[in-house]
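Cross-check.
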Amino acid sequence: MLYATGLKEPDMDKAQVGISSVWYSGNPCNMHLLDLNHKVKEGVEAAGLVGYQFNTIGVSDAISMGTSGMRYSLQSRDLIADSIETVMGGQWYDANISIPGCDKNMPGVLMV
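Predicted model, tokenized:
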């Protein structure tokens, strides 16, 4: 399966790093994280490792303030942590670099 992702035989002995970000375009705190994620992957690969990128969810209570949407801010932290943990465990990655975008999703990243 990993050959289909672009890996070659020498890559099979390299550590695999999961690079998770809370990127989404609907929040100015997070909309730049996809670009940062690409730069992190470049650094991981320059260090002789294999980097696999993935995203998780994010909620901005600054945008949803005053609506019922703001109720999702705290529980989103658990979902962020759970989704990163699920990918990391399920894919059996050797390390994780997480890229949060604001004070609302950083706790979820740190909980992992």
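The radius of gyration is 15 Å. Residues 15-111 form a domain with the Rossmann fold fold (CATH 3.40.50). Passed to J.P. for a second look.
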